[in-house]
Amino acid sequence: MPLHDWTKAPAGLFPDFHSSWLTDLKRTLNRGLLPAGYYAMAEQRASLYGPDVLAFSMNSPTGKPSHRGNGVALAEPHTARRLISHNVPTTGRALTIRRADGKRVVAVIEVVSPANKDRPEHVGDFAGKIATLVLNGIHAVVLDILPPGRSDPDGMHPIIWMGLDTEPDVASPPADQPFTFAGYRAGMKPTAYLNYAAIGHELPDVPLYLEEDLFVNIPVEQTYMMNYHEIPAALKNVLE
């Protein structure tokens, strides 16, 4: 099933879809996709980005839980592009992935909302927070089903990347696939794994890193369609 045109959504539909999609992503991750020792939670973005969470994440023990389940260790995900950053680091809802031992945040999943893109300062705020998380050792996934606009003409990724590397990513998404789905691996050299889509295209899977050598692929299309099927027919007609 295809990606839909969310610029046509009536008031209130996108926030409802955003919330329910995060819920299904959480359920999918917790029902066997995440390896043993990790779990997903829906959290308020304001508390998620607080300094206490970053400090707690950085100061927790570094030992890893045993990797049982569907984790893929020591492998490269299949994406259209891979970028490696050589820069070393000196309010809505999001998903956090935590480790059961100490409940340390290891990763964050964000679905971009219209409010994140409606003005330059909001784009900069969102991109800066994602970059800050990655530079503090927290992996991230950004799912953006909204088209680029005046404040993010090439989508969110190039702006996030400017916060991760001294050299900006000058390459734009393919002209016929302007929607970017990004997985960010934290570490001494942060890495971005990028896939693209267009309206009418299937949504690509995205790698969610849990450790530098362990990731799972998020079934973006599957979870998206779980929620799209629940939209009332009259509203689906507007999107299609």
Tally of alpha and pi helices: 8
Overall, the morphology is globular
Order of helices and strands: HEHHEEEEHHEHEEEEHH
Rg value: 17 Å
Strand order of the largest sheet: 1-4-5-6-7-8-3
Helix content: 25-40%
Indicate the low-confidence ranges by residue numbers.
58-62, 86-91
Structural class: alpha+beta
Terminal Cα span? 11 Å
Largest sheet: 7 strands, mixed
Find the count of extended strands (DSSP E, 2+ residues): 10
The portion of residues forming beta strands comes to: 15-25%
Q: What's the overall average pLDDT, rounded?
A: 84
Task: Provide a concise account of the structure shown.
The protein has helices at 13-33, 45-48, 51-59, 114-117, 120-135, 157-162, 220-228, 233-239; strands spanning 38-44, 72-73, 81-84, 93-99, 105-111, 139-143, 179-185, 191-197, 206-211, 214-218.
Description:
There is one protein chain. This protein is of the alpha+beta class and 240 residues long. The protein is 32% helix and 24% strand. It contains eight helices and ten strands. It has helices at 13-33, 45-48, 51-59, 114-117, 120-135, 157-162, 220-228, 233-239, and strands at 38-44, 72-73, 81-84, 93-99, 105-111, 139-143, 179-185, 191-197, 206-211, 214-218. The strands form two sheets. The chain has a seven-stranded mixed beta sheet with strand order 1-4-5-6-7-8-3, with helices on both faces. Strand 9 and strand 10 (214-218) form a beta hairpin. Helix 1 packs across helix 7 (220-228). The longest helix has 21 residues, at 13-33.
